[in-house]
Specification:
Elements: H1 2-13, H2 42-46, E1 54-56, H3 59-68, E2 72-77, H4 82-92, H5 95-104, E3 106-111, H6 116-130, E4 137-141, E5 147-151, H7 165-178, H8 180-199, H9 209-222, H10 240-253, H11 256-271, E6 285-286, E7 294-295, E8 298-299, H12 300-317, H13 320-336, E9 347-348, E10 351-352, E11 355-356, H14 364-371, H15 373-382, H16 417-430, E12 438-439, E13 442-443, H17 444-461, H18 464-480, E14 482-483, E15 486-492, E16 495-499, H19 502-519, H20 522-539, H21 571-586, H22 589-601, H23 603-608, H24 614-625, E17 628-633, H25 639-649, E18 656-661, H26 663-668, E19 683-688, E20 691-692, H27 699-707
Parallel strand pairs: 1-3, 2-3, 17-18
Antiparallel strand pairs: 2-4, 4-5, 6-7, 8-9, 9-12, 10-11, 13-15, 14-15, 15-16, 17-19, 19-20
Helix pairs in contact: 5-7, 7-8, 9-24, 10-11, 10-12, 10-24, 12-13, 12-17, 14-15, 17-18, 17-19, 18-19, 19-20, 19-21, 21-22, 21-24, 22-24
Length: about 700
Amino acid sequence: MLKAWMILSCVWLGIFHIDAAISGEDMTTHKYTNALIHEASPYLQQHAHNPVNWYPWGEEAFAKAKRENKPIFLSIGYATCHWCHVMEHESFEDEAVAAVMNETFVSIKVDREERPDIDQVYMQVAQMMNGSGGWPLNILMTPDKKPFYAATYIPKESRGGRIGMMILAPKVHDLWIHNRDKLEKSATEISAALKKQGQTDAIQGELKGKAWIKAAVTSMNQSFDEQYAGFGGAPKFPSPHKLLFLLREAKRTGDTVSLNRVEATLDAMRAGGIFDQIGFGFHRYSTDAAWLLPHFEKMLYDQAMLMLAYTEAYQATGHERHAKVVREIADYVLRDMTDSTGGFYSAEDADSEGVEGKFYVWRTLELARVLGKVDASIAEQAFQMRDAGNFHDEATGQATGENIPHLKAWTSNTLSPQLDGIRQRLLDARNTRIRPFLDDKILTDWNGLMIAALAKAGRVLHEPNYVKAAQKSADFLLKTMQSKQGLLHRYRHGDAAIMANLDDYTFLTWGLIELYEANFDARYLKSAITLNQTMLEKFQSESGGFFLTANDAEVLLVRPMEAWDGALPSGNAVAAHNLIRLSRISSDIRLENDAEKIFRHFSPLLKQAPVGLTYMLSAWSMAEEGGIEIVLAGDKESPEGQNFLTALNARYLPNAVVIWRDERSMALIPFIQLQSPVNGKVTAYVCRNFQCNQPVTSIKKMLDLLKK
């Protein structure tokens, strides 16, 4: 029945899914003001002066739709979304389009980064109906939130197989008036299919993790790009959680092929245009196979996850070039993405002055003007720039005469002091340009990732400022993003709001665990344990998986639950990691049992497509292989104590947890009370699966025990 409806819908609405590429110009106007003006979201604020009569998601909009007998036009995007901007400039700022939309629909705007629960539900609808999704995500639905049509970018006028808004709205109006029973029947069927799809995962299956891990590694190695590195073809995404998975498997099995491919990918990305060679930090993804032409948007979560990948690569190999990239990403984040509160901003747009990438590209004449002839020649050669340009417009394929700086290769010695000085002069010149829009909202989940990245990088690279930045962010979140109902999701300009989702709890818990292992302040461990317990109470299903939304959250069409890794590892995968680590830190075996429930719940998916759940497989491997618990006792601040930590942090021990025994940690972890210093010296207790060796006061003996 659903398939038949899909065929009919294409006939009725004239809808065909073909990607289109156009450009738009900034046409900001304040002639109109709608209900979004009172919203804190930068994305909603961007639409507050559209002639479209937008409403935020809420009862007012749905009541209006019922009262006026209109369908809902739900549009979901985010502040730094390029195609969201295009659609706004072309359609939502156009008075003719707004007139037909206002007549036909009650229109609702949602920031997917504020409400990932709404986004996930209706993105699942789009993928179910069309086989694909993306942003902007546009959904037509009944006033009771049941969808009957899904699309991504909709042009003003029909072209390239896409129905235009000027045709779509009148067609929907006609169908709503004359064939509403068919639309509502279809909406009911789609909603039922969505609910049924959400129920299919709730199966306790058999665990065959080793086979699934082998299948995932084989799949990734088969898709490896021998010419340009990375996995698969264009577009290429960094997918750092997959690189972390391969790094850990290489450590576990001694697989040098996977290790080499991870390093090749990390090096290719750092050399490519996907990396901002002038200001540092990574762009969202590469539109080509060679890592040259990026989608220029910069996301906080990409910086965090890539910092973790380069940090672990440095630990696994000792190659300084990876540590250098970690420092470069940190430089960018601390310079451009950090709020005075300590929180980290969400993203920087791809566009400036209405043009994607304009802020980042260079003409050779400009190089000469900024640097002079001699240094301009050095920059052209080093950054692969030429008079004709190396940048081709993504939409038209035409050469622009502009250059994306990139390198032939990446080594620790690529940027000499002379070239780094040239780069700094180019950065100073670039800073005089009109910058891309900064999405300055602070999200708990993404901040949790950056806390984890900075804390880990700080302890591994001996960069105390990174740990301090992580601590400042954690203190801000723990103080500000709390309410009587629990953790909050979004902060902007003094306003903390929106109840937290699973990722907020799991990512922040991850960050707090890493922060504890960086500074051994038991406050952060206590907060991690508390958040983890709240997560269990609010999000765990009867079969062991974790819902995205809490048990006291707004009721949507379905209560979403996600296991697939996307741009980020899934909340369920991170929950499994946290449960295992906290179990081993606290000796609470119940937590590791909760992690096993996650694996069993999602075992059908792990069997079906293990390469899509690599971070969960990393957690399964950690559980199956057993852990290493290292308890240090004595004076942490002494030179001897610092030497122990330096030796530990230099080792790649992804399955280890480290505890420093002091008064506050003993209150949380009773079993370490008897693990006291020997003869007043800093002492290490190396334990495996809660069975401890004899204490040692020698760094060499500690490292010998870790080799066994």
